[in-house]
Design brief:
The relative contact order is 0.16. The strands form two sheets. This protein has a nine-stranded mixed sheet with strand order 13-12-11-10-6-9-8-7-14. It has a five-stranded parallel sheet with strand order 2-1-3-4-5, sandwiched between helices. The protein contains ten helices and 14 strands. It is of the alpha/beta class.
Length: 344
């Protein structure tokens, strides 16, 4: 329900470490989006967050959902706290925009997607790498078949996360809170972007491990071979044990060109000798500071979600596209445990 200025009304649930780019994005969209309130269980940290960004504090998420002005909620809680909130929002007829991942397991993610489908509310999932200028340029080129058939894919996520101050935080890198390690918490962004550009993966052969650089329950290193449904083949390496951390890169070899996305920058070398560059400078969050990236991509994704609600279409990144990356991560981890090639 638009306010007197015609703005879309959003409530925010969760305001932890990952909320900063969302807050900055919402501030930049203030002409079109009205943040009705923010809820976080820790009242002192909630008050500090709202004071920093100029938002109102809500007494509970139920109070936000009960507000007749509310159009949608932005859920930024850890993944183990999602399903109850999404179910309550769906019952209230409110649309949902979720921080990645949807949940900790494929089964739980499927339940959340079904809840929103059955209630006929939109479900968007934050995968901001799709909204980089370079990503959008390459997506348009692929859609137009500009460089011919895709042949090989090479994805490297050489990130670093320290033990002290990151993995020592309660719940970090655990199955109970996060659902996994480097794949579902960090590399999921690059995996989603890869799938959006290359199509689904048909089968995987993987090895996952926890290096001696970290004391944690889940994996901090994964290597895998990928077989795509379109016949392309690929390789994946993702880690948070690569000090001091570097930008992720995705290289696609087509029949007529090779394209490399390095964080937010794209370079294309065509077989005819042309070199095409697109993108913007960013750190990408590969080092010890996981928030070292701009908020513009979040702003573009939130704006797309609002447009999707108003136009009654699926958001560009939605529950069903997110399930593709969840199923890929599940297959990678099962392949490592079983020591064999597995279908996705």
């Amino acid at each position: 329900m638009a306010d007197e200025q015609g703005r879309f009304a959003i409530g925010v649930i969760g305001a932890g470490m990952g909320a900063k780019p969302h807050a900055l994005a919402l501030q930049s969209l203030a002409d079109t989006i009205n943040v009705l309130g923010v809820y976080r269980r820790n009242r002192a940290e909630l008050d500090a967050f709202c004071s920093t960004y100029g938002f109102a504090a809500a007494p509970s998420y139920q109070a936000l959902l009960a507000d007749p002005r509310l159009d949608a909620i932005l859920v930024l809680t850890p993944p183990n706290a999602r399903e109850e909130i999404v179910a309550a929002a769906a019952r209230a007829g409110k649309h949902v925009l979720l921080e990645k991942p949807v949940e900790r397991t494929v089964e739980a993610a499927e339940r959340i997607v079904a809840i929103c489908d059955n209630a006929h509310v939109k479900l968007g999932v934050i995968f901001q790498h799709r909204f980089r200028l370079a990503s959008k340029f390459l997506a348009e080129a692929i859609a137009g078949q500009r460089y011919g058939r895709l042949e090989t894919v090479h994805l490297v996520v050489p990130w670093w996360r320290p033990q002290q101050g990151y993995y020592d935080q309660p719940g970090r890198g655990t199955i109970a809170q996060d659902g996994g390690g480097v794949l579902i918490t960090q590399a999921i962004h690059s995996l989603d972007l890869m799938l959006s550009l290359c199509g689904p993966v048909r089968a995987v052969t993987a090895m996952a491990a926890t290096t001696r650089l970290h004391q944690m329950e889940t994996e901090d290193f994964v290597a895998a071979g990928l077989e795509f449904a379109n016949g392309a083949v690929g390789a994946l390496m993702a880690t948070t044990a690569n000090f001091p951390g570097g930008p992720e890169s995705l290289t696609l070899n087509f029949a007529e060109a090779a394209a490399t996305l390095t964080a937010g920058n794209l370079t294309i070398h065509t077989r005819s000798g042309d070199i095409i560059s697109e993108g913007e400078t960013s750190e990408g969050g590969g080092g010890a500071d996981p928030m070292a990236f701009p908020f513009d991509w979040h702003a573009d994704q939130i704006a797309d979600f609002v447009d999707a609600v108003r136009d009654d279409r699926a958001p560009l990144s939605n529950g069903h596209t997110a399930l593709l990356v969840h199923r890929l991560i599940d297959a990678l981890m099962r392949s490592s445990r079983e020591g064999r090639r597995l279908p996705v």
